[in-house]
Amino acid sequence: MAEGVEVALNIIVKWNGCDYKINLMPSSNILDLKNSIYKETNVLPERQKLMGLKFKGKIPGDEVCLKDLQLKDNLKIMMMGTQEEEIAKVTEGVVEYPEVVNDLDIEEEVVEIQNKAEYLSKIEKRINTYQINILNNPRPNKKLLVLDIDYTLFDHRSVGETGSDLMRPYLHEFLTSSYADYDIVIWSATSMKWIEAKMNELGVSKNPNYKLCFMLDSLAMITVHVSSYGVIDVKPLGVIWGKFPQWNKHNTIMFDDLRRNFIMNPQNGLKIRPFKNAHTNRSTDKELKKLSKYLKYIAPLDDFTALNHSEWESYYKSKKRGHHPTS
């Protein structure tokens, strides 16, 4: 290769569940990148928000050259942005989204799976090898709240210009209220890079009203075999409990829109209603507002194993009326 000859740079843009490969010369600028993305996604450059690019500690302007960002080849970045036709549909109130079936009815196998030596061994391996980056030290006498991201706190399939467009209503109020009684952990079945990007975009990472204890990604999960569905990935709370003995089945609760994710700890899991179609459901979704009250009601309890989290709404309504349910 002759000296001074530019070599094209490949950038992989993740948007709306798909990867788009963009090929540009290093002398191209951010606007050139946005125009190339527009050709692939039909999202106008002015509606694009590119996550994962930094120039001198800030989001680079359109005039900044790619070579000045010192990008690695095949770098993956995330884009947020909405196509004009989608904006028009939302405005007209006729948005249509495909229904996604993403849960499993596997209750009959729970006991066997929970106690199977093969899976307990996998959990032990994660305890010994998975590295957790502590963001804020656990606080004494706080219970543990473990939260999923996609469809739990954030509609990751709809398109939006900013994270706030897709953020579940009452998210910050929910986390602020929960933080008084619980240390908060994020666990998503994606890579840590995307978890960090989403938490930053949603304004969760550095919110002054609450703090995250740490975050877990897909590498902390294990696979189990369910006879009806084959091999699935799950989130065993034992990985956390093995590293932090102050937490256990008696003082931990986990929110996820997929019941299968807490198959190893079904009594500690609460299946939250999925937050989808953010543009149309944003004004009516009050799930987190109600769940913040539920967490507040159960926080004084010494043992969560006496609760049936699948009946959390009945518990919430009874407490709201001044009754005192025992389970």
UniProtKB/TrEMBL annotation:
Domain Ubiquitin-like, first and last residues per copy: 5-86
Keyword flag rRNA processing: no
One Pfam family it belongs to: ubiquitin
GO cellular component entries: nucleus
Transmembrane segments: none
GO molecular function list: metal ion binding; protein serine/threonine phosphatase activity
Record's subcellular location: Nucleus
UniProt protein name: Ubiquitin-like domain-containing CTD phosphatase 1
Organism: Helobdella robusta
